[in-house]
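Quick one: structure for this chain?
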Amino acid sequence: MAEPRYVNDIREIEEIEAKDLENMNQVLEKYEFKSNDYYLSLIDWEDPNDPIKRIIIPCREELQKWGELDASNEKKYSIIPGLQHKYRSTTVVLASDSCGGYCRYCFRKRLFIHPEQKEVLRDYETAFQYIREHSEINNVLITGGDALMLSTEKLENLISNLREIPNVKIIRLGTKLLSYDPYRVINDPTLLEMVKKHSLKDKRIYFMLHFSHPKEITDVSLKACDMLIKAGGILCNQTPLLRGINDEPKVLGELFNTLSYMGVPPYYVFLCRPTTGNLTYAIPVEEAFHVFQTARGMCSGLGKRAKLTMSHSDGKIEVVAMTEENTIFRIHRAADPDDSGKVFICKRNPEAYWFDDYEDIIDTISPIDLSY
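Got it. Here's what it folds into:
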């Protein structure tokens, strides 16, 4: 099957009119554009509200002042450039500084804006040694950028070295290529052989996919998913909740159901991080909870496994419940293990986009003592 043709110059897209290109100029001066002809073919150019178009095509609203480039303070948890250790049992390896396309709401767009800061891992030996010396680490997430933008040869080198570290049980690959360029899987039998070799019956390789709208799930992406599953990979899906893309319960519910039919469990639904340029995609916490819960009500138990969370600097904070007066949060994964499971009962604030926007905390419930 033919490889997609990548497009880095938006002026090559014939469907975009000159006046629209002119409106994008300032955005493109600040934020990169990248896509390919496969993904662009999913756009209905007659629909001004097409969700695929909104995911990949720049809009002037990205220039609204809001947020910061490192909204979750990843720098705080960086051991060396490209190796993060935020949660006790998990390390994150930023192995790639490239993606199959640049999501307009990317929370790591700083990698593409400031490549001179060199946040991608180059010193593999030091990273392997750190993971080896920290026996509490049993879970390594390879991401970036996009893990599958690495050549299979580079992935093989990285994964085979991790498999030699006894404490590493789970290896995860963060990728949106099953949406952007599923031919990366279909046209590379050596990738499937690598998965068969290293996704073991007691230590699996997980692929953390990024389908954000049902239109991204095509016959081609279904084939790629099926090939990875048959090779022994475990597939899960995560997506931000995004204005104009999946913020309608029917759309999100359809996404959950379709994923469950495919055997790809919905994993996380993230609140859009307060990253520079992302306000136009962000949804307030309480509106997001309503959309999320309504969508889950359309699914069987297999389709409603996702958790609505935000990747806060202190950890993954789950939105658990709402009453008429309060919004209730729980620290689902804590940077400080003593905070794991802590519950916050906050006075409702319909204008809040992030946990920090809740100034009125009514009560805090400490986690159950699990020291025994």
